[in-house]
Amino acid sequence: MADDLLRLTVLGSATPYPRADNPCSGYLLEGGGARVWVDAGSGTLGPLQRHVGLGELDAIWISHLHADHTADLLTAYYGLLYADVRRPAPLPLYGPPGIADRLAGFLTNGPDRSPVEAAFEVHELYDGHRARAGALGLTSGAVSHGMPAFALRAESGGRSLVYSGDTAPCPALTRFAEDCTLLVCEADSSAHPADAEPVHHTPEEAGDTARAARAGRLVLTHLGRDLDPAEAVSRASARFPGPVEHAAPGAVFTLGQAQAVPSGSCRPVSRRQSP
Ligand SMILES: [Zn+2]
Fold it and tell me: Does the structure show a pLDDT above 70 at 21?
């Protein structure tokens, strides 16, 4: 792949637990000569290896600490320290404050964080955090999910891809996504509960966010289990004039070239909102 292209491969997009044919949230982001695993939802480490091994990854970026975005960090840790993966240094891990302690709570039998930091070079995110992986620029922006949570803006070769992570609609996300080439926005909620503060988008709100940000394209991800992908795309399209697609598992979005190659299918079976 040319270094000036940006490419996102959907490893999984289900929530809050995997479907038979769709892991939870996880993506492979490629650009600027770098490969970044974006969110490590349960089931994504397997399909990641169709494209890149843990030994060749340049970084991991985690939006927030809900298990459907982080669970496979646990098994990645075993791969990095106790198996056949060879790296010259710990794997850079960008994530919310407290991520190392959270992992240590699962992975060690005490307060010692050192095994975690032997596997991962931990960088805690904050609003406006900037990092580079190769020539790929990674900016993190705080969003609204009832806990520390971040969106990601990846830039390379004049193209920009924004991933919302999990968030309710908020001015911070709209500003953060301004004029991006592609917005990957969550649409977890079919409708908001009357008795709780929203922590997710509906498909209509994802369309509104994309339109307000003047995004070039919109990809809906993290659809709640009561949302049919085709229906969600239709609902978002009523509010956003640009192309709208679903982040089906296996879909590949290449900026400047398009196109999605979805595989698998999602069937609505129940309803619920969060995590
Ligand atoms: Zn969440």
Answer: yes
Place of tokens 């939802």: 41
Q: Closest by alpha carbon to 20, among 49, 43, 39, 37?
A: 43
Residues with Cβ within 8 Å of 127's Cβ and at least 6 positions away in sequence, in order, are 140, 141, 142, 150, 172
Q: With both helix axes pointing from N to C terminus, report the angle between 72-82 and 99-107 in degrees, rounded to the nearest 10.
A: 70
Instruction: Label residue 3 by pLDDT band (50, 70, 90).
Output: low
* CA 215–ligand 1 middle distance (angstroms): 23
Placement of tokens 């991006």 in the chain: 180
Ligand 1 centroid–CA 146 distance in Å is 9
Q: List residues, by chain if needed, whose CB lies under 5 Å from ion ligand 1.
A: 66, 166, 275
Domains, the chain, ordered by start: 6-254 (3.60.15.10)
